[in-house]
Design a protein that fits this description.
five-stranded antiparallel sheet, six-stranded parallel sheet, globular, Rossmann fold, alpha/beta, 25% strand
Length: 261
Amino acid sequence: MLKFIIGVDLEGLACVVGSPGKTLTDSPDYDFARKQAVREANAAARALFDMGAHEVVIWDNHGSSLNLFYDQLDQRCKIAVGVGGKQRWPGLDSSFSGVLLIGYHPMDNTIDGVLAHTYSSVSYQHVKVNGVEVGEMAVDAASAGEKGVPLIFVASDDQGTAEAKHFMPWVETVATKQGLGRNLAISKHPLQAADEIYTGVKRAMVRLNDMQIFSFDSPATVEIRYKRLEEAEATARSKAGWERVDPYTVRKDFAQLSEWI
């Protein structure tokens, strides 16, 4: 039985660039991003069903996880919505055949990565796992990998797709836009991007047996560098196990990466 979860973020969607000095949710681009997220998620879901999927879950995971127009999603899909779960991928277990990332973005410190950040654009300067700087794509792929489920497809800007290929060379990708700065891109037309996602997901399904499990060595050491030193201080003082590495940076060891995120 072929089952998949599609994780849907917003910053990596076609024609989404946000506004300087604002988070995407607070920018004039947010309403369009919500519509394009539905378009791109539906394209991925339709490809999965057309290639024989029995179950597809769409996971709304940007910010508060209350973004998509749910009544406009493919009605064959189930929808994971809201926050507060016990694991990063709601409902994911080893019975799933793969996970997909739509609308994801590059990690912090990516030159010309559109809206590049790692989990918190307001608080974090970067995140490292076992000494390697990582973004949300690698962490989410590793979280799925702990369940024995591979990442099979990524849609992001050109910097994001290159990042995905760096960590997971086997993954199929579609670049929705070429990043020219944090809030600047040359984008594919929104409908063209959706068409290419449909085709790209079908390619991933043909290659499903080639997909590999991505993981970090355990125990995993997580290092977070904050943008403000008082946040590092507060974490080290109030959260168990976090060690202050320098004025801006804290570190903690986890038996598995999923214990952190």
